[in-house]
Here is the input.
Amino acid sequence: MAERTVERRPLVAGNWKMNLDHVEAIHLVQALALHLRAIEHGRLDVSIHPPFTDLRSVEGVIGADDLPITLGAQHASSYAAGAFTGEVSVAMLRRLGVQLVLVGHSERRQLFAMDDDAVAATTRAVLEGGLTPVICVGETQEQRDRGQMAEVLTAQVLAALEGVPAADSDRIIVAYEPIWAIGTGVAATEEDAQEACRLIRQVLAGARGEVADRIRILYGGSAKPENAGDLVTQADVDGLLVGGASLEAESFAAIVGATAACYGQ
Ligand code: 13P
Here is the structure.
């Protein structure tokens, strides 16, 4: 197994997708806080990404108890303000205490026609607004079967970086989420996850130089307590983007715990 040569602070991120209203959200965060209290996780970041309508309530719970949880969003508009019905701006999110924004999740790409240009524009908007984009990339089963994984990931990463100032290169996070592993219960093997994350780091290095060593790259797709440890011990896997298993306090906390254990806690 490749050795981890650079220390990067791991991140375990929970993407709630379109689940839980704001009342349910409050309950989940309170339960999560209880579970996290039993885990030494000071060496890693934990974020949750609830639906927009939950953010204010979740911010209140995190703030009131000063919980060690970073607030994230699932999407943002690439526009600053104006006649964009249904959109939510980066500034609005920042005002709510949001620090991380998922950009170009495969569900946005596939179901809401978010193309590479929109992913790049949103990445830039998030950075300009002072927040951190978590750029999601990943191949379909068909692309993998045709041997196009490297080509697809390379194109998606390079497209997302289009127009991102060099000085902001180390402010991004990338999440490798193979589409065939999302919501299927079949995660990538740790070898496959490592291979893809290593490739993404090489693409980042080619485009942005040695800063690539400091950029966090997450794996996402059917991550759960049972496979979290094996995935995050891989040299280029710096954490996890968790969907279904983040909707229950116990399983999400167990993933945080398994990750913390791999980082010497
Ligand atoms: P699952 O963990 O439910 O497979 O979802 C992964 C995902 O899409 C996280 O963004």
About this structure: The longest helix spans residues 190-208.
